[in-house]
Amino acid sequence: MTTSPTISPTIAVIGAGLDRVDAPLKVTGKAHYPNDFGYAGMAHAALVRSIIAAGRIRAIDTSQAQAAPGVLTVITHLNAPRLDRGPMTLLGPSPPAPLQDDRILHYGQHVAIVVATTAEQARHAASLVRVEYESTEALLDVDDPRAEVLTDPWSLDSERGDVAAGFAAADVVVEGTYTTPDNTNNPLGLMATIAAWNGDSLTVHDSTQWPHNVRASLAAIFKIPESGIRVLAPYVGGGFGAGLRMWPHVILTVLAAREVGRTVKLVLTRPEMFTSVGHRPNSVQHIKIGASRAGDLIAIEHHGTSTVAMEDDDYEPVSLCSAVSYACPNVRTRDRQVRLNIPCPGSMRAPAEGQGNFALESAIDELAHALGMDPLEFRLRNYAGEHPLFGLPWSSNALQECYRRGAERFGWSQRTPEPGSMRDGRWLVGYGLAGASYPSYQVPCQARASVHRDGSAFVRSAATDIGTGTYTVMTQLAAELLGLDTSRVRFDLGDSDMPYSPQAGGSGLTGALGNAVHAACWRLVREFLDLVRDDMDSPLREAKLDDVTVSEGRIHRTGAPELGESYTDILARHGLEELSADGRSTPPRSEELGMAIAGAFGAKFVEVRIDPDLGLLRVTRVVSAIDGGRILNEKTATSQIIGGTVGGIGQALFEDTATDQGTGRIANATFGDYLVPVNADVPDMDVIFVGEPDRATPVGTKGVGEVGLVGVAAAIGNAVYHATGRRMRSLPITIDQLL
Ligand code: MOS
């Protein structure tokens, strides 16, 4: 494995705002998403879901459904085989297995799957399944004293210094309780699974962010070797985290296909998406922070409580951001989980930071006002120059530059500090800002690169592109590393038969995959050099990797373009059709490198306008200054930040999964009722990238998937405070909080 060569400083392809390489396929309908596939003889499935949140099934009558036209089978807990729970994954334990007994743990729990010749027949028959429930009182409220409370399940609570002494020494202390609601991921593409058995082998199309996890999970559950399973997800219609875990409906589709001996397709309905594929769990956070009169943070205490489903183990440490965001000597963060009769949560768009940052950055703003300091100045003053928990220098951290450049672009200096002091006609104008970070998350990844006799390259890994631009940026990266035009490089993904890739999630895929592609491409160049090592005809004879440069389809001695030859010539002379090499990346380790592996940082500046009589709130400007390390493609990275910002506006002003407290029913499980921002809610947004390639990895990216969302809700809340003098402590911010 090679590590030495770096990406050329004379950037050609990397960073360029290349159009998405998959765009023509998408706009012409040639990109096939999981629910676009069909097979001859394919049957269709529909789910029956519980309409109660807790209790048991007293009786279930499937006779009418069984007798309905086209029905092939109805599977319930009475005739389902016993299935093991899925395996432990890198993201934690799998969700509980479906249809294993008569217990109901949440509203929307799958209680039957019906398979019929057509989708309409399956849905109709599903409506004929009669279920008699015996309800018990459901635990649905985070404050319910009867609920089980889990303490620090993943050992992520933190403590440093002496928090009590810190508060005693502080001149100014503020504290508050912040709440965030359940949110639902809602990718546009309804999640779909197609399962096709062929003897003991299985092919699955699935709306997953992680094909290898689906393969490993199904292998464990159905007790077949992983080599007998192929999971395909070349295009996925969005994810937002909903496709990270392998959910019970995937298991049910595979099971149904085995039962009926035919290929089976299941497409979730939009209401089913609200109970079947995770959600951001709600949180209650108490935060207290104190500073000296001069403006130095002295103590932070952040307690988070969030919710989790019965028998599930998903977890988000919402308070952890308070341990790593500022230089502060005395900090305690603690997280608790309350077990309720709710659908399984899961990661959703900046899990943990999305909620925790709202409390932290609102409290920081409140403290700055209490001190009479500019909140920008206060943040700059308390910048963490080294990692506050590890005491190590950052591998990169341009947060201060984010603040300065963002403030300049936004015109922060125009702000008058007094709340309510800026007006435009009837509108109160508010400026708010928030700092943001999203931690580094890296796991091992593999890729394979090939160059063919015709001079084209083919690079692949079993990753996914959930709309974020993976195809495009990996094409650019491979093109740069192999010295080829992007039109000569094809990057393929979304197939578990390809080399191992981790999930598209945690803002970690571009880093893990990029470094694997880097390793594969440089290894491939070395393979070419190995071929010509003793070749008396080659100007590259005995050249080492460090001696050469690649460009225009050729390898040549660095500084001497004439001393080289093309991939094509080398392959032809050696009678080879292609040459391939594998590469892998491993996560950089802080202890080995003597530096704290940094994630992305950012500063969000927001202008709001509020009509104080009507309670109208408009977000009118957003500037995001982002340190994402190396930016592989300015255009797709900007889109990521814009998309994250829109998600942040949704979190701040609209999104709220409403649970009926009597029944546990999700009361707004449609796109008509679950509010998300529309174009009229979204202003023009400025995105600027600052900082340098991160030192910890060869490619130096830090991930821009989630930092776009983090901080937006707090910046909006802080702008509302500046406009009105009212502190927003509960999301979403609604009219009643403004009147
Ligand atoms: Mo992201 S919530 O890790 O898909």
From TrEMBL:
Residues 28-137 form the Aldehyde oxidase/xanthine dehydrogenase a/b hammerhead domain. The keyword Plastid does not apply. GO terms for molecular function: xanthine dehydrogenase activity. It holds the Pfam family MoCoBD_1. It comes from the Bacteria. SMART domains: Ald_Xan_dh_C. The keyword Transferase does not apply. Its EC number is 1.17.1.4. Keywords: Molybdenum, Oxidoreductase. It is an enzyme of class 1 (oxidoreductase). This is Xanthine dehydrogenase YagR molybdenum-binding subunit. It comes from Nonomuraea africana.
